[in-house]
Amino acid sequence: RFCTWITSTENRLYIGWFGVLMIPTLLTATSVFIIAFVAAPPVDIDGIREPVAGSLLYGNNIISGAIIPSSAAIGIHFYPIWEAASLDEWLYNGGPYQLIVLHFLLGVCCYIGREWELSYRLGMRPWISVAFTAPVAAAAAVFLVYPIGQGSFSDGMPLGISGTFNFMLVFQAEHNILMHP
């Protein structure tokens, strides 16, 4: 009965088996993003004990606020909450960034699967899910592949408006992409 309800195309909102994983991961990423954007303490992004504030409660506004990437001291190591000695340490080292990014990437990959699953159930061709793979690949490149290539999540794009522009300027400065032949 539950399996029939999950895969039913008669529901107002299609869930599907991919949706069973997509919904909690995207809700987690969204909830942590909102909480961290409003109230996260400063993060030691460079690993030199000089924290950078990105949340609204620490003096930023909607434009300058951002979720600061994980500390360079963490590198590309997986840094879940239970690996830190305390919640304060996890916040100080930028743990919310990894939590948000990894849950977000898993959630949008499940969204692709859910799009495919819905088209399969309706007997349609899966071009919508194929088209959505391009922005997902771009997000994975910026949030996962590039930091792994650089050796640290601290090189990932901060999650905010000014953080996005800062990332573009730093990317150009370090890799000279505009003058590349």
Automatic annotation (TrEMBL):
SUPFAM superfamilies: Bacterial photosystem II reaction centre, L and M subunits. One of its GO terms (cellular component) is chloroplast thylakoid membrane. It is found in: Membrane. GO terms for biological process: photosynthetic electron transport in photosystem II; response to herbicide. GO terms for molecular function: chlorophyll binding; metal ion binding; oxidoreductase activity. The chain crosses the membrane at residues 14-40, 61-82, 94-114, 126-149. Its main location: membrane. It comes from the Eukaryota. Pfam families: Photo_RC (PF00124). Belongs to the reaction center PufL/M/PsbA/D family. This is one of the two reaction center proteins of photosystem II. This is 32 kDa thylakoid membrane protein. It comes from Lithophyllum kaiseri.
